[in-house]
Amino acid sequence: MGLRVVFAEDNFLVREGTAALLTEATDLELVALVGDPDALLAAVDEQRPDAVLTDIRMPPTWTNEGIEAARRIRREHPEVGVVVLSQYVEDRYAAELLADGAGGIGYLLKERIADLDQLVNALTAVAAGGSVLDPKVVEAIVAQRSRTAHSPVASLSPREREVLQAMATGLSNTAIGRQLYLSERAVEKNINQIFGKFGLSQELDVNRRVRAVITYLETTQ
């Protein structure tokens, strides 16, 4: 059986177009297609999917309904992963989304919808309890937090910031090395320095990468 997904989007054309795209994935089953937060929560209760894909802005206020729905789903159905879609980079919403923890949570820009493999990989990752953050969102968060005098990000070197941005988007050490033209040993050294500056040296390995992002989000809220 493929990955069972509920998709929430209030715009009819986007909803139907994305649904058509998702049905092309052989290892994914779209079990419900809804247009508002109430219908999303009802579909999750009824279908018990593996993952949810939802827009941030939905009725009635078109602000952060998707975020609130995502947080409620993670509280009431912790086994269900959630990927939130945003039209623009909104790092304050990323902070709100991650406030209850990063496990099983994803935040992507809508422009990623066109890349079916990336979308399916994100849904698969959150369904397994992992986390996915859009590279552009991470870049914006790092830039903003770096301007905050007392942010731990301010203590990072330029290279450590580059590694953090790549690390937080889910890249492996090998992939980070290829992207930044570094040896895997150099990548590991930079990551350990980041963990140390953020006070994450004693965290479990499975959580430290995403906690590195959450740490500087939390320090400025």
Please summarize what this structure is.
The chain is of the alpha/beta class.
Give the helix/strand class: alpha/beta
Could you please say which CATH topology of the largest domain applies here?
Rossmann fold
Name of the CATH homologous superfamily of the largest domain? Response regulator
Helix share, percent: 40-55%
As a percent range, the share of strand residues is 5-15%
- Integer-rounded radius of gyration: 17 Å
**What profile does the largest beta sheet have?**
6 strands, parallel
Task: Give the CA-CA distance, first to last residue.
Answer: 42 Å
Give an overview of the whole structure:
The relative contact order is 0.11. The longest helix has 14 residues, at 184-197. α3 (65-76) links the parallel β3 (51-55) and β4 (81-86). A six-stranded parallel sheet has the order 2-1-3-4-5-6, with helices on both faces. The model has no long low-confidence stretch (mean pLDDT 83). Helices cover 51% and strands 14% of the residues. It is an alpha/beta fold. α7 (158-168) crosses α8 (173-180). It folds into two domains: 3-132, Rossmann fold; 137-218, Arc Repressor Mutant, subunit A (Orthogonal Bundle). The N and C termini lie far apart (42 Å).
